[in-house]
Amino acid sequence: MDKALYLLKSGEIWLKRGSRPFFERMLRRHLKRTLKPYSPEVIMQKGRFFLKVAPDNLDAVERKLSRTFGLVGFSRAWSTSKDMQEIRSIAVEICGRELKRRNIKTFKIASRRSDKGFPLDSYQISCDLGNAVTEAFPGMRVQLSNPDLTISVELRDKAYLYGPTIGAPGGLPTGSAGKGLLMLSGGIDSPVAGYLMAKRGLSIDALYFHAYPFTSDEAREKVEDLAKVLSEFHGGIRLWVVSFTDVQLEIKRIAVEGEHTLHLRSAMVQTANVLAQRIRASCLITGESLSQVASQTVESLNVTNSVSYLPVFRPLIGLDKEDIINLARTIGTYETSILPYEDCCTIFSSKHPLVKPDREIVTAHYRDIGLDALIEQAAADAELVKL
Amino acid sequence: MNTCYADWAATSPTDSLVLQASEETAREYPANPSSSHTLGRSASRRLKELRSSIASMTGCSDKHIVFTSGGSESNSLVLTSLYWKKRPGSVVIPGIEHPSVREYIPFLERLGFTIVPLSAPSGLIDPEALADAVTDTTDLVCLNAIHNVSGAVQDLTALVEAVRRRERRRVHIHVDAVQALGKIPVALKRLDIDSASFSAHKFSGPRGVGFLYTRKPLHPLGSGGGQESGQRGGTENLPGIAGMVRAMELHHGNWDTFLQQMEAFRKLFFSMVKDAPVMMMQDSNRMDRYAPHIMLVSVSPIPSEVALRMLQDRGCYLSAGSACSSRTARKREHVLTSMGFSSKIASGALRISFGYTTTEAEVRYLAETLLEVTTQLQSVLPHRT
């Protein structure tokens, strides 16, 4: 059976000059990996990205393409000989497919003729195909401005026809910016942070701190579900589950009232650094947003930042909660994030947490707790879940 | 590994004789009781016999029994029938009532009813407080026989008397009695109440079957195939009903033996955990007012869900009185605050409930495990100041 053809539209990659081949290579590699069950062939042709796949499950292919970073959109494409009869029948087929999918009434044909030897000019091609479509579907009307359906036609070495463009998230191909470790909780923010950094090309591993029996297995399952949603964009994800009960109990035992959360955050950042070194990640990602909670004030972030030798990316730092919620809805993590299983038991949080901690004092207190051995052990015992 | 199932108030394990009765009935009566052929009529006759058995064991007449899927649906039939009330008055709903009653408050308010709340210190509804809550406009009073969380046994005779004394016109008294049947005697007609809910799985019967006692036919919202005198549509669950009746027969009249056994277990349990950092949430001066098979304690400041996880890891299964991270638990916390407990105490509440097949070894194991778990947790989580 003939393979189905897609035209892929990459956005920011086109702005690159010297590094463009690198980004294209990364995109090609990502597509080949994530679309492996559909026997993908990625073809570069005169500055255009084409994808050929087995035609058995195009819905699944399109779902994956619509979640591929580095693409801003894609269209189903057909190539044929430069025979008007053939071209007409494909244009009619495209219109018929779209009519089955959605309620459309208007269309236009956008023609481009690179092969100047072709007997009809662009305008004539559009008229010819427009007539063919309206004859086949009398209910369809030509509308050049803002039509329900645009069928694009290109006359080059062969004739190419493209269906409507389906959107993709844009950004840069996965893995093109190196590797980061996402501190993933069960909340709304951290999955969004992971999404945004993956969109900028970071390959991501996720890290979750589990404190059984103080947090439930449902809380862990919720984090796994969130990681699964991210994995759809990322092409699989590795989730590291670190058992943090002993560290939390030690902090609870020793810490000064008001500093518990800061020490816990610092311990998590420190653990993330240890794990990042092991998995060769070169940055950390968190879902912190300025002043959202006591541990996310400038002063508190200064404290937790001080234990990290790796850069900590906080892509949500300047966003309002409402903006973050809207992003979470778009990505598809919101509904899972608001499930009631907490990722942190209230008994470990201070009644009156410090809002403006003194970095020198609190980091000194943190060092005095002496968590290094427990943290090394927790990171060494991290359980890997491949999603 | 040793285990202890101490969540009988949630669901009791189905008795094997009950399963057998259900299976036999399903095989012997394959037809729909509404069918007019001989097989259908045979099933209908069996249904009638079963209804009579229930009526005789609960002290009422056959015509007062409506088969349902259990307690929640039975409560729902009563509450939704208020939809047809032409002049909505008021409904008394104690704060300790089960969610299947309390969740109807927005519905009733929307219909124009005034909800009159009622507190129940330590789970016990005070007859005088109830009398004060009844006014000339009262249409319905919702009560429970044995409170599902605290185990409080309500003095129904006194409560009904208080309502009848104050009422100007007949007030409908509905009793959620799902925790009572099979544990204490139930004599419905003598009680002078108007309706009561029952659920088979609370007394080792099958899940998904129960009945409503109703003194007068109800006119609930749903309509169906006309079964149950038009009060509850849907083909009757004959095998389930047969199982329920078998379960009732197994425990009928054995109250004293059961209660004595449970009393012994309660004494044993409390004596074993007396040194544990566990607070009793029942009124210790009135322990005779609590069903001996249900105990309510608090392990605060340990959240109940944390204690439950550690207990389940050691083979002990019970329910939280409340918890910090579950929606249903928040509803239950409302129940506990209505009993007069602070949110802090409520967040550490554990409900322990024993049943027919609980053994002394299980009780001992649970007490030892609770002692171990709470002591261990308290040592790492000292009381907050």
Order of helices and strands of chain B: EHHEHEHHEHEHEHEEHHEEHEEHHEH
Backbone shape of chain B: globular
Q: What is the string of helix and strand elements of chain A?
A: EHEEHEHEHEEEEHEHEHHEHEHHHHE
Number of domains of chain B: 2
How many helix segments of chain A?
Answer: 13
Structure write-up:
Chain A has 387 residues and is α/β, with parallel strands linked by helices. Chain A has 13 helices and 14 strands. In chain A, the strands form two sheets. Chain A has an eight-stranded mixed sheet. A six-stranded mixed sheet of chain A has the order 13-12-9-10-11-14, with helices on both faces. In chain A, strand 7 and strand 8 form a beta hairpin. In chain A, helix 8 crosses helix 9 and helix 9 packs across helix 12. The mean pLDDT of chain A is 92. Chain B is of the alpha/beta class. The chains are: A alpha/beta (387), B alpha/beta (385). The interface between A and B is medium-sized, with 15 and 15 residues.
Features:
heterodimer, A: 387 residues, alpha/beta, VC0802-like, Rossmann fold, 2 domains, eight-stranded mixed sheet, six-stranded mixed sheet, 13 helices, 14 strands, B: 385 residues, Aspartate Aminotransferase, domain 2, Aspartate Aminotransferase, domain 1, seven-stranded mixed sheet, four-stranded antiparallel sheet, 14 helices, 13 strands, globular
Secondary structure elements and their pairing?
The complex is a heterodimer of chains A (387) and B (385).
Chain A: E1 4-10, H1 20-34, E2 41-45, E3 48-53, H2 58-65, E4 71-80, H3 84-101, E5 106-113, H4 122-136, E6 141-142, E7 149-155, E8 159-167, E9 179-183, H5 189-199, E10 203-210, H6 217-234, E11 238-243, H7 245-254, H8 260-279, E12 284-285, H9 298-305, E13 312-313, H10 321-331, H11 334-337, H12 359-369, H13 372-380, E14 383-386
Helix pairs in contact in A: 3-4, 5-6, 5-10, 7-8, 8-9, 8-13, 9-12
Chain B: E1 4-5, H1 16-28, H2 38-58, E2 65-68, H3 71-80, E3 90-94, H4 99-102, H5 105-111, E4 114-118, H6 127-133, E5 138-144, H7 156-166, E6 172-176, H8 188-191, E7 195-199, E8 210-214, H9 238-251, H10 255-272, E9 279-280, E10 294-298, H11 304-313, E11 316-317, E12 319-320, H12 327-338, H13 343-346, E13 349-353, H14 360-380
Parallel strand pairs in B: 1-11, 3-4, 3-5, 5-6, 6-7
Antiparallel strand pairs in B: 2-8, 7-8, 9-10, 10-13, 12-13
Helix pairs in contact in B: 1-9, 2-9, 6-7, 10-14
